[in-house]
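Deviation from plan, reported transparently: 2'-deoxycytidine-5'-triphosphate complex.
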Amino acid sequence: MTGIQEADHHQSVSLDLLKQKMADFAKERDWDRFHSPRNLLLALVGEVGELSEIFQWKGEVPRGLADWKEEEKLSDVLLYLVRLSDICGVDLGKAALRKVELNAIKYPASKQYTTDSDGAVNMSD
Ligand SMILES: Nc1ccn([C@H]2C[C@H](O)[C@@H](COP(=O)(O)OP(=O)(O)OP(=O)(O)O)O2)c(=O)n1
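Because the crystal trials were delayed, the predicted structure below was used instead.
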């Protein structure tokens, strides 16, 4: 089973599955030689740039992004990030989970939060 059927079969798509798919994709094309950390980072930033183009000059966009057809750009960002993490030997899922835990310690849910005009977060009791 491959591709979309596989995704449908799974409850949700895991980072490990995406990591394996990207590794297979590169290996089958002999593209490991292109997937250096630097190249992957530049490719990732390039895809973030493509994503940014969709939003630029449009003002604030409502949540839900009605009729948004740009899922592929988000996917490219994720795929390059997953691949970069793999090549750099980082367990992205574990690292992100740990960061979520650190965020919760840094910003307790019991506090009140406001933001400055420059976007900085202020915390109070
Ligand atoms: N050296 C490469 C080139 C591509 N890809 C994979 C990862 C991305 O998911 C996708 C990116 O493909 P393109 O560079 O063709 O970019 P787009 O799909 O965004 O096409 P375009 O820039 O024409 O819109 O392909 C990859 O793994 N390694």
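The radius of gyration is 18 Å. We consider this an acceptable substitute for the interim report.
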